[in-house]
Amino acid sequence: MVVRAVRGATQVDVDEREHVLERTRELVSEVMEANKLDQDSIISIFFTATQDVASVAPALAARQLGLNEPALICVQEMHVEGAMPMLVRLVAHIETDLARDEIQNRYLRGTDKLRVGVPPIPGVLPGD
């Protein structure tokens, strides 16, 4: 068993407490299901929210799902001009037997665009 990180993101339609919690529960559940995780395999989850999501701390959604033992923290994501608004992201540290390339990150509700169009820097990565 090793410790790995798994990422995820979702976009909310409105900054209303129950809506943010619903979308965050969906995100946490999808990450857990995709990686065959149970409560004991989650060490910690870092949640970020853009500054336009302020009605509730997203970590509450994880607690509502019964994740009472993992360390949870919420922080505000830095503001970047032109960045996608109304986002909740997570990075979860997990214990797993999955290889790094088997980890299933989850980008819901249009957030898959966050991983598109990142230009490589020639000569920085191995094989360049």
Describe the protein's architecture and organization.
Helices cover 19% and strands 28% of the residues. It has 128 residues and is an alpha/beta fold. It has a single domain, classed as RutC-like (60s Ribosomal Protein L30, Chain: A, 2-Layer Sandwich). A five-stranded mixed beta sheet has the order 3-2-4-1-5, covered by helices on one side. The relative contact order is 0.30. The mean pLDDT is 91.
Helix-strand category: alpha/beta
First-residue to last-residue Cα separation:
32 Å
The strand line-up of the biggest sheet is: 3-2-4-1-5
Cα Rg: 15 Å
Helix content range: 10-25%
Q: Class in CATH?
A: Alpha Beta
Mean pLDDT: 91
Major sheet details: 5 strands, mixed
What is the number of strand segments?
5
**Low-pLDDT runs:** none
Topology, please?
Layout: E1 2-11, H1 17-34, E2 42-49, H2 59-64, E3 71-76, E4 87-96, E5 106-107
Parallel strand pairs: 1-5, 2-3
Antiparallel strand pairs: 1-4, 2-4
Short overview:
By secondary structure, the chain is an alpha/beta fold.
For this entry, give a set of tags:
single chain, 128 residues, alpha/beta, 60s Ribosomal Protein L30, Chain: A, five-stranded mixed sheet, 2 helices, 5 strands, 19% helix, globular, chorismate mutase activity, EC 5.4.99.5, amino-acid biosynthesis, isomerase, aromatic amino acid biosynthesis
